[in-house]
Amino acid sequence: MKEMLMSLLNFRRKEAPVSDLPTPEVADFLRDYSIEVMPRTAEKVEDFRDLLPEGTRVYIAHIDGTPIEDMVATAARLNADGYKVMPHFPARIIKDRATLENWIAMYQGEADVRQALLLAGGVTTPHGDFSDSMQLMDTGLFDKYGFERLHIAGHPEGNRDIDTDGSRLRVDDALRWKQGFSERTDAKMAIATQFAFEAQPIIEWADSLKHAGIDLPIHIGIAGPAKLQTLIKFAIACGVGPSLKVLQKRAMDVTKLLLPYEPTDVITELAAHKAANPDFNITHVHFFPLGGIKTNANWAIENGGPAAQPANSV
């Protein structure tokens, strides 16, 4: 069996076409990409400056159970290294207004945080007063503390936790409310999305928002290079919808089963569409580094994205 698998993999290496150099469209699409980390994954990175370009926006995912002190320490480290820090504020794990204000004050006092991703959060039952990101926005605290940028969650394939019937009615209603919020405040806002694997449904979703009068810029979620099994596990856990079939089809191809997934196809198609339609409302790429931050950062560089400037080279 081992010899057969090795033979198949060697055949794949010989027969696969030599990949083209990164196109200008892809390089342009990857400019100013953002990436997501968690405190426990950040701890494994010796120096982010060896991996990410200075000024990269780094989201810090707040998983239920992570102490706020760990979140703030990660934010302070990234800020000191020259990155734009954007921590998650998951409404359902924030007990009350006082807790929210304390978090904001800690982030600003220790890490000079001025931007945030506001979302409902992954838990089913709220821990306190908040159940959605609109309630967080309505507190006025982010304006009070001078936050310059607020991002909100988007779901190209819907969200069955919100719209249990598979529609997008409640999700889209929430986006319309947030569009209105952006128009009546000074906040710079954008939609940061869940990841998906197929370009055409993403394009259709983005166009549908624009036609509905929702013109907030979209930072499209893209799963970075990872083992196929890892990606399928995360995709199911995160509620990825129809585009999961891209991974399922790949899993049925024994010549690809043991090879890591790379987001080349979806990035290339979206970049080409953006180049042909400059007013397309997807403006940035946001990476979920499911196969590791270093792997993701190196893939971005190899495909035309901006390179890091290692700290020891300055």
From TrEMBL:
Keyword Oxidoreductase on entry: yes
Keywords: Oxidoreductase
Organism: Sulfitobacter pontiacus
Highest taxon of the lineage: Bacteria
Keyword set includes Oxidoreductase: yes
Protein name as catalogued: Methylenetetrahydrofolate reductase (NADPH)
Molecular functions (GO terms): oxidoreductase activity
